Amino acid sequence: MREGGVRPGVGKDGGAERGGVHPGVGMGGGKGGAARWVWVAAAVVALAAGWEAWGYQVAFVTDAAGPRALPLLAVALMLAGSVALALRPHTGAPGSGPGETGIVRPVLAGALFLAIPFLIPWLGFMVTAGGAMAGLAMLLGAPLTRALAAGSAIAVALYLLFVYALGVPLPVGALFLAPTPGGG
Amino acid sequence: MEPFALLADGFAVALRPLNLSLAFGGVVLGTVVGLLPGIGPINAIALLLPLLFAVGIPPESALILLAGIYYGSQYGNSISTILLNVPGTPAAVVTALDGYPMARAGRGGEALAISAVASFVGGTLSIFGLVLLAPLLAGWALRFGPAEYFALMVLAFAAVASFSGARPAASLVAVGTGLLLASVGLDPQSGIPRFPFGRLDLFDGLDFVVVTLGLFAVSEVILAVERAGAGALLAPPIRRVRLTLAGLRDVGASVLRGSGIGFLLGVLPGAGGTVSTFVAYGVETRTGGPERKFGKGDPRGVAAPEAASNAAATGAMIPLLTLGVPGSATTAVLLGALLALGVTPGPLLLDRNPEVFWGLAASMYVGNLFLLLLNLPLVGVFVRLLRVPGWILMPGVAGLAVVAVLAVNRNPFDLVIMTGCGILGYLLRRGRVPLAPVILGLVLGPLAERNLRRALALGDGVGDALFPSPLAAGLWGLVVLAVAGPALGRLRARRGRPRIQ
Lengths: 184, 501
Known about the structure:
By secondary structure, chain A is mainly alpha-helical. Chain A is 59% helix and 0% strand. Chain B has helices at 2-14, 17-35, 40-55, 59-84, 93-141, 146-162, 168-183, 208-227, 245-267, 272-287, 299-315, 317-323, 329-340, 349-352, 354-385, 390-409, 413-430, 436-458, 462-466, 470-496, and strands at 185-186, 193-194.
């Protein structure tokens, strides 16, 4: 997408090698390296989906394609594409945009997003979102105090906008609710 | 003259105070999200949709707002393309070729003025085309049966995938991923749950707002985190946006050529935006006259693609509204939004919901006028928005995505799906897999499946089911062209190049 235009000059072989999404996998394998294994993994996922979809059958005469046609077509396309890319991972535009900061920060960002749905029922929207957004701000390079300020400002602003202006209820959190006979 | 009488009714809808303010709000918001790196119209539409449900405004008003974001973002995108050399869409890459050199030479204000005027002319002329062509196409589309619709949808997939500029194999992965995401949930025809993973939450399928925000917004935030510390981009200050009559005369012909090319290509499902700017630029470089400086800051190199991309954006509304077949990622999201709002685009839309179609067309005239009036004097203000630091902008986008997803179904499990799609989107983008076919597959997949199964039920054998008419056969011919054309071009280019890299 955008990276190609902003950061030209990444060598054809350098990109996937340094910026592979699975560092540590196949790094010693010379050309292809990590990128190849990601495509192999995609092909395996497609095969598993195909295995599952094969069982979706009905005996209606009027429904010749049946419920499995769409998923099986999807699997065929994914399989063909990812096998081709696994065989020739480098025949594309230059580089896949190597991460300047390695894999740790994107993984942390993903983990922050993933934590939100599990924390929201207990901590409520305000605390969870405020904390997660402050964490993201820090990952984006803000110092601690600024990150906390940004996170809490975003959480409060969104809460006010949705709950009061738009009338969309947001979870308050079990921790902050007084126990009631009917359950929190 | 009938279309113009109907258009007059449309103006009555568009000039209602609510719709007028929504058109204004839409184009301002569109300019802002088109300008800011990493948001874009797709996220803005997906973020706003749950909000529109909460407020409960009529569908034509919602569409006026969402369409305003769509074409307004084109103006905003031009600003960051010209000043920062950061094209937010593949189509805008062409504008950067001459726009950025102009900005570096201190002529950024002039480039922005040309871009605004060219966008306005391209947009306005093609609304004219929309008003004339859409009723004709809608009448013609009444003859479409399931087989024709299925072929048309396959054509949209083929065109979007082969014009995405990505490797063909990556496009296959993208379409496949979108169709796979689309097949999750209860099969509406047989009632069989597909890929339920034992969770009742998945029986309803994946909500397209949730998937879209994951694929685009969450993956963008993760990419921004990865890039943090790579150094910020600084926009050169804009002193004044100058617009001279002589300057306009120089680019006038280019604007008109670009508008025509953009509209014609925009109407074709799938080809749309990206191709139109490249073609318009190519035509300019050939007909540009004696004093050519293309690539070094020629105003005509800004004018033609800018007119073309706006004309194509408007032209793309024709297949979307009259056939219900989107030709790009953004129009696919618009289709999803329309369906969610209870409006079914198709040949009957003009008859059943005239206020939606004609109100939208009229509001687009008004919106483009707003954009021109806003962009000439206020470019400096918009440029200042580019200084908002990423550590405020990106958590803001993430927070909005979380609230929007919670507002859709009030189910925190949707956040897990959004994050999963975010990680998927991140991996796809790192693997240089285009996201447009994914979103097209997600929105169009179920419609294509329904039409295919209907066609098979109606036809006598597969051959008869898929090729019941010359029209269907013609559409399949276009599918072959869309797939084979770019592939042949690539093959020829490869042969022309030396063997050793």
